[in-house]
## 1
Amino acid sequence: MVQVPVAEGVFTWPADEPELIGSRCSACGMVTFPTQDSCPRCASTAMEEQRLARRGRLWAWTIQDFPPPAPPYTGPTGADFVPFGIGYVELPGEVKVETRLTESDPAVLTIGMEMELVVVPFRTDDDGNEVMTFAFRPVG
Ligand SMILES: [Zn+2]
């Protein structure tokens, strides 16, 4: 099965240690994810690509226990839907990333826990490709 990223320019793939692709403002240093053409803080257009840290801390989370509205959601629905965690992971000195979580069990998710970037299967597209997306999982 061919694996394809859910979108281009969001994370490095294929890669043994995938990284999210953000941008950094050359004028004020603000980091964004996903990339932006101009800085949301100072409006500079001197944005450079920056590979983001692969580890951060869980800042907020919840469990998505029903399919989100489609579009933009393109994943499984109905009987195929499996609840998943969503949240924000704060990458040190960079940015808070809104992300899918590999865990959907509230008992294992704690604010402040260390999280690591992974790339996981999201769905199978009409051509039979396995569509991959990024997520964060607890470390250890
Ligand atoms: Zn700026």
## 2
Amino acid sequence: MVREYNNHMKITFDSISENEKFARIVVGAFVARMNPTMEELSDIKTAVSEAVTNCIIHAYENQVKQIEIEGIICKNVLFLRIIDYGKGIENVEQAMQPMFTTGAKEERSGMGFSFMEAFMDRLNVISHPGKGTVIEMERELGKDREF
Ligand SMILES: Nc1ncnc2c1ncn2[C@@H]1O[C@H](COP(=O)(O)OP(=O)(O)O)[C@@H](O)[C@H]1O
Ligand SMILES: [Mg+2]
């Protein structure tokens, strides 16, 4: 019988751009035990990068505050939460539209949420203006592999 693999982690780090890479690496290391394919790993890291970048640029507007990532592995499913205590999103539905951005048009593509949606199985955005935002993402890994 294959033992079920479960794990839980939570990290807090500063909202500086160097930590986009740090967050990708930490989440990559966390999922390593699930034996992800290169594509799965790349998808997950891209989704994490997009969410963390949004905390740095939009939530905290380049002020140095705290970002949290919580990860849960439950058998072959990865759950991630990216949490900030920044400015929040007034209209989540609008923010999630492809190409919608409140940033400078030359710099921002407005595709961050679209990538997160495309690369993960499920995306949920909970936001309270003035309080912060929680991005919940879920991805099931290789259905026919053993864990
Ligand atoms: N964590 C966040 N806090 C506040 N606003 C956010 C956050 N994440 C996203 N947003 C808002 O949603 C918009 C769309 O985000 P996204 O799809 O990643 O595009 P982009 O980052 O290129 O603007 C952003 O322009 C911003 O207004
Ligand atoms: Mg973005």
